[in-house]
Amino acid sequence: MTGPLPGLEVHHQEAPDFYDRNPELADLLADSISPGERELLPKGWSILGKVIIVKIDPQIESLKARIGEALLEIYPRCSSVLLDRGVAGPFREPDREVIAGSAKTETVHREDGVVFKLDPAKVMFSAGNLQERMRMGRLGGGETVVDMFAGIGYFTLPMAVHSRPKKIIAIEINPVAYGYLAENVRLNGVDGIVVPVHGDCDLVTPRAVADRVVMGYVGTTDQYLDAAIAALRAGGALHYHQTVPEKLYPRKLEEDLAGAGERAGRSVKIERSARVKKYSPGILHAVVDARVDGAE
Ligand SMILES: C[S@@+](CC[C@H](N)C(=O)[O-])C[C@H]1O[C@@H](n2cnc3c(N)ncnc32)[C@H](O)[C@@H]1O
Which residues are listed for S-adenosyl-L-methionine binding in this entry (predicted)? Predict the structure, then answer.
């Protein structure tokens, strides 16, 4: 997608965000904070479009407005700063608060030739999954794909834009994320390829249609493996994202897949296991690719 987007300002950047040990933040606040507070200042932040997203140590949360203003001074092209308190619930909704700048946090992020419109105050966008988004955009071609936890189109859009499948059925349960998914499909000019579906994967995943099924991370991804395998035609590819203690990687994930294959009476052959990113201390976010044969 290269054309202008009416009414939207697009910001180009190499990666979805960057973490920067910028001494400027400490310098800008130097006169008004103690040396102890200085030590606790954030060492990095993310930038998505025009929005800066920062985690702040709870011990210095009283400084949040000043930290936000200082970040806007460092990045004059940005318009809002969000304090990030993590992601919660099955919809993976971020807990974020505007601490400086405009209350309007909807923005447009461009990455790998794909446009993502989103409001980072309302939906998540994981910087650490960049390589995986790029990889998915270069697999297959001419296939029917089911993206089970599509979000705003994290995997659907790079696949539709770059590998030109025949069709992608992109399923999303959260109405806000679904709204952005539908809009991003239009903005990227892939409405002839992507069919956004608003619903619960457990109820709406079609059976025996897919050459490829993508299962992004939702915390309980393993509970949807039966639906994913049922969606696949014989010989189809499955991408299973899950978190796992480092010590159990990749065995635990391979066992999840083997179990689902057994329940379905189909053969599941592991083709690749990879670490996507560190999720939390001792816990990995990983992806396993498998080939599923047998009855449709
Ligand atoms: C973490 S986000 C998308 C992950 C993305 N694929 C990635 O790895 O960057 C997961 C999405 O799945 C959606 N979701 C969770 N449970 C679902 C379900 N049962 N059916 C459909 N969508 C679901 C959430 O609302 C959320 O938008």
Answer: 126, 133, 172
For the chain, what's the residue count? 296
- Please report the domains of the chain, with CATH numbers, ordered by start residue: 11-109 (3.30.300.110), 128-292 (3.40.50.150)
Q: What are phi and psi of 123, to 5 degrees?
A: -130, 150
Closest residue to atom 3 of ligand 1, CA basis? 151
pTM: 0.88
DSSP 202: H
Helix (H, G, I), strand (E, B) or coil at 56: coil
Which ligand 1 atom sits closest to the C-alpha of 125? 9
- 161 near 138, Cβ under 8 Å? no
Ligand 1 touching residue 173 (CB < 6 A) = yes
Instruction: Convert the pLDDT of each residue in 44-83 to its tens digit.
Output: 888 899 999 999 999 999 999 999 999 999 999 999 999 9
pLDDT in tens, 198-222: 999 999 999 999 999 999 998 899 9
Phi, psi values for residue 141, rounded to 5° = 130, 130
Centre of ligand 1 from the C-alpha of residue 93, in Å: 10
Spacing, Cα 140 to ligand 1 middle (Å): 22
Q: Which amino acid is at 221?
A: T
Say if CB 35 and CB 26 are below 8 A apart: no
Helix (H) or strand (E) holding 131: helix 130-136
Decide: 70 in ligand 1 pocket, CB within 6 A: no
Q: Is 218 touching ligand 1 by the criterion CB < 6 Å? A: yes
Interface ipTM? 0.94
